[in-house]
Specification:
It is built from six helices and twelve strands. By secondary structure, it is an alpha+beta fold. A seven-stranded mixed β-sheet has the order 1-2-3-7-6-5-4, sandwiched between helices. A hairpin with a 5-residue loop joins strand 9 and strand 10. Helix 3 packs antiparallel against helix 5. The structure holds biotinyl-5-AMP. Biotinyl-5-AMP binds next to helix 2, strand 3, strand 6 and strand 7.
């Protein structure tokens, strides 16, 4: 591999233009999970904006205890510790929008560095040609001796070759390399990701979700699609995804069952894009 594309803190810093995110960067060759390491650091009191990066994860996590394929030398596995001081009545808006704006920031960063147009699948998947190229896992730690904090974890398949994905992911996953056929500099992409993320976090904290919701909706491939939603209570719903609500929920016009022809706001679900 081209040595200039090895992960390196000095290379990240050479293009990093953030005010706060990434003042402290912890880079590891290998970790079980960057979210786990960031949580440990958060509990020990590290400052807001601390970034944990691992070249490889041995127990990368997805939502609902799923695993995240995290090979060495090719991808981005990165988590941040956030300690934002917000009034209690804004916590719920904050927590529902964090995963969405993280996915939005990652998509903007990818487009800016590689020109690859990544779309979003609600709530927090990054898609390229309808295949998953990245994912986001946010966790809220309320009870900690160091005070409450949030972890945002981002995984992006950057330079993985198609044949290097495990068989069970080959049909559903892709990488930026698959589109560009050139090796993308992960250091540059991480620096841009932190900048886009900082701008989105500032916008959410200072002005709320209104503009972010519009930007998210423009990138979201789910809107207008026929979808199947697996809801948190185990039930399923088929319908057309109409829009994103101000609280980050997905509004689905239901097609099936007793809820047919009603619009339902879904806060947490797994979404499958169906052919219309
Ligand atoms: C996610 O979960 O998409 C969140 C992924 C977050 C990963 C980052 S890496 C840095 C940080 N540290 C961690 O430990 N995690 C975060 P979910 O929506 O539940 O999707 C998980 C599903 O995606 C799996 O069940 C697989 O089907 C699929 N998958 C696993 N690895 C993949 C990969 N590398 N690329 C595309 N799809 C993958």
């Amino acid at each position: 591999m081209n040595p200039s594309h090895t992960l390196n803190v000095d290379s990240i810093r050479s293009t990093l233009a953030t005010k706060v995110l990434g003042r402290r960067i912890e880079l590891f060759k290998q970790l079980p999970s960057t979210n786990l390491e960031a949580t440990t650091l958060g509990e020990s009191g590290v400052e807001h904006g601390t970034v944990v990066i691992a070249d490889r994860q041995t127990a990368g996590r997805g939502r609902l205890a799923r695993t995240w394929f995290s090979p060495g030398g090719t991808n981005i596995h990165c988590s941040l510790v956030l300690r934002c001081e917000l009034p209690a009545n804004r916590l719920s808006e904050w927590l529902s929008w964090l995963p969405l704006i993280t996915a939005l920031a990652a998509a903007e960063a990818i487009q800016s560095v590689t020109s690859v147009p990544v779309s979003l699948k609600w709530p927090n998947d990054l898609l390229l040609s309808d295949r998953k190229v990245g994912g986001v896992l946010c966790e809220n730690v309320q009870a900690s001796p160091s005070g409450p904090f949030q972890i945002i974890g981002i995984g992006i398949n950057v330079n993985t070759r198609p044949e290097d994905f495990p068989a069970e992911l080959r049909a559903s996953a892709t990488s930026l390399w698959n589109q560009t056929h050139t090796v993308v500099d992960r250091n540059r992409l991480i620096a841009q990701l932190l900048l886009e993320l900082e701008q989105c976090i500032e916008e959410l904290a200072e002005h709320g979700s209104q503009q972010l919701a519009l930007a998210y909706q423009r990138r979201c491939a789910t809107i207008g699609r026929k979808v199947q939603a697996s809801l948190a209570d185990g039930s399923e719903l088929t319908g057309y995804a109409e829009s994103i609500s101000q609280d980050g929920s997905l509004r689905i016009s239901a097609l099936s069952g007793s809820r047919s022809n009603t619009t339902i706001e879904v806060r947490a679900a797994d979404i499958v894009h169906l052919r219309s």
